[in-house]
Amino acid sequence: MQMIVRGARLHTGDGRCAPDLVEVRVEAGRIARILSYDAGAPPQPAGTVVEAHGALLTAPFVEPHIHLDTALTAGEPRWNTSGTLWEGIACWSERKRSLTREDVVGRATEVLRWQAAQGVLHVRTHCDVTDPSLVALDALAEVRDRVREVMDLQIVAFPQEGIESFPDGRRLMAEAVRRGADVVGAIPHFEDTREDGVASLHFAFELAERAGLRLDAHCDEIDDEQSRFVEVLAALALRSGLGERATASHTTAMGSYNGAYSYKLARLLSRSGINLVCNPFANLGLQGRFDGYPKRRGLTQVRELLAAGVNVAFGHDDVMDPWNALGTGNPLQTALTGVYAAHLTGTREVAAAFSMVTDRAARVLGLGDAYGIEEGRPASFLLLPADSPFDAVRRQVRPRYVVSHGRVVAENPPAPALLTWPGEPAEQVDFVRRRDPAPWRELGRG
Ligand code: FE2
Question: Is the pTM of this model over 0.90?
Answer without folding.
Answer: yes
